[in-house]
Design goal:
Layout (H helix, E strand, L loop, with lengths): L3 E4 L2 E3 L17 H5 L23 H4 L3 E5 L3 E7 L5 E6 L8 E7 L13 E5 L3 E8 L3 E6 L13 E9 L16 E7 L1 E10 H4 L14 H23 L23 H8 L1 E4 L5 H13 L5 E6 L1 H12 L3 E2 L17 H6 L3 E5 L2 E7 L1 H4 L8 E2 L2 E2 L4 E7 L3 E2 L6 E2 L2 E8 L2 E2 L3 E6 L11 E14 L6 E4 L2
Parallel strand pairs: 3-23, 13-27, 14-17
Antiparallel strand pairs: 1-2, 4-11, 5-6, 5-10, 6-9, 7-8, 7-10, 8-9, 12-26, 14-20, 15-16, 16-17, 18-19, 20-27, 21-22, 23-24, 23-26, 25-26
């Protein structure tokens, strides 16, 4: 139908009307009259389709403490082995004999090479030999038994435990001694940033969805999600961060060098225990327990794993590993939970014991999240390499310089004189209390400067899928 005129320059056509004129030829019923302006039957509740998507909380649950820092990096000290081994690589093959003069090379300088004349060492794992002579390029071993020592093979790296020494009557004291050693470790702080923006118009719009507490302003939801993503990424960087050792890194945004910071996984990969593949048999678990013994591990571990490793542990328990319960005769530890198995259960841990160790198992949501670290797991098997979990000692470690007992994991953040950079949050804009900009918008700013300390990484276990 042609458009109607008579209202100035405005043209009204029935096809585009949000209403119908109440004329006899058009009026049918009241329902027809108001149909297009009915309020939708709207449900205001926001459905969490994927559940609670936050992945933080791991570091707090395993006892990581928070400490303020005042420099560009944090440093700590770690004790070395009380009984060092003599490590060298044979540069020539020597046939089996009662006395072996082995040409060798070592990365250690003469001042730190721990082998001395008259030391008694284990050769080939069980043969007791005395060090008869040492030069800059050879070491001579003489068997204490009347038999040949096993041959030395060129190119093989040897590690000789030093079990003692022997001296004759009336001889002088040794001319060299071993100095106790500690290793200084450092980790730079990393700076993380994020923003969220909303215009004045959008900040005053009312939507259909209740975003919480009866508030229908959608930007509230956007800002809350931005904050949660930032907190999640901050924890993931403490887990997955790496020091930047690239010789020619990209400059990134802004100026200055981005040093990077060592995360938890990097620390274990560098100086801890790493399994390549799921722990799905008692043999696999016993190999790890043996390695923990060799590193002086404590009796309790928090085990955070993905779903497939979680199920594998359940299978191990079904095959005979002792489950933690109040049943007499089950050797379990609950020191991390004030010796209360009920507290462990309340926090979501399931416990089992093996070889004098108690493992408190917990599902790790981060490793199951398909948009994050769970991307390589489908069906019942891992389709690509990735991280399946970690075993974290739930005991303090001793600082060799101070004697203080410290937690294995420590979250450090820059802070001084009341200014904390653990989680800085400020507003830039022209409304909602902000008056530092002339633009009709509000910017939410987030910044965190943090570093994770992983002490005694040799006691931690990283489980990889492949």
């Amino acid at each position: 139908m042609a458009g109607m005129t008579g209202l100035g320059t405005q043209t009204i056509t029935s096809a585009g009307n949000a209403f119908k004129l109440a004329t006899p030829d058009r009026y049918i019923s009241l329902g027809d009259f108001i149909d297009t302006v009915n309020k939708p039957d709207n449900r205001t509740q926001l459905i969490k389709t994927f559940g609670n998507q936050g992945i933080t909380g791991f570091l707090q649950l395993v006892g990581a403490v928070k400490t303020a820092g005042t420099a560009d990096e944090v440093q700590w000290w770690e004790e070395q082995r009380l009984h060092p081994t003599a490590n060298f690589t044979a540069t020539g093959t020597v046939a089996a004999a009662k006395t072996l003069t082995i040409p060798f090379t070592t990365s250690s300088s003469g001042s730190t090479f721990v082998l001395r004349v008259n030391d008694v060492v284990l050769w080939n794992g069980s043969e007791r030999a005395i060090v008869a002579a040492i030069t800059s390029s050879t070491v001579t071993l003489s068997n204490l038994a009347d038999a040949n020592l096993a041959a030395a093979t060129s190119g093989v790296a040897y590690s000789l435990p030093i079990v003692g020494n022997l001296y004759g009557q009336g001889t002088d004291q040794p001319t060299q001694f071993l100095e106790s050693n500690v290793v200084r470790r450092t980790n730079p702080y990393m700076i993380m940033k994020e923003i969220f923006k909303v215009t004045g118009s959008q900040a005053t719009n009312i939507g259909w969805v209740d975003v919480g507490g009866g508030d229908y302003r959608w930007f509230i939801k956007g800002e809350a999600d931005t904050r949660q993503r930032f907190v999640d990424k901050r924890e993931m960087m403490m887990l997955l961060g790496q020091k930047n050792v690239n010789a020619s890194p990209s400059s990134g945004y802004g100026s200055g060098t981005i040093s990077g910071s060592e995360g938890y996984f990097s620390a274990i990969e560098d100086r801890g225990l790493v399994t390549n593949g799921y722990i799905d048999s008692l043999v696999d678990l016993d190999i790890i327990i043996t390695a923990l013994d060799r590193n002086g591990a404590g009796p309790e571990y928090a085990v955070y794993v993905d779903r497939l490793q979680d199920l594998s542990f359940d299978d191990l328990v079904a095959k005979g590993v002792a489950t933690a319960s109040l049943t007499a005769g089950v050797a379990t530890q609950f020191g991390a939970f004030n010796n209360s198995p009920n507290m462990a259960i309340e926090l979501g841990f399931k416990s089992f014991g093996r070889g004098g160790y108690t493992f408190h198992k917990h599902d790790w949501k981060l490793l199951n999240e398909p948009t994050l670290l769970g991307t390589s797991v489908t069906g019942t098997a891992a389709t690509a390499a990735g991280f399946a979990g970690a075993m974290i000692p739930m005991a303090t470690v001793v600082d060799p310089r101070t004697g203080n007992r410290e937690f294995p994991l420590e979250i450090n953040y820059k802070s001084t004189n009341g200014v904390s950079r653990e989680m800085q949050h400020w507003l830039t804009g022209s409304f909602m209390g902000a008056s530092n900009s002339t633009r009709d918008e509000l910017q939410f700013n987030y910044l965190s400067e943090i570093a994770l300390v992983t002490r005694a990484a040799n006691r931690h276990v990283l489980i990889k899928r492949a």
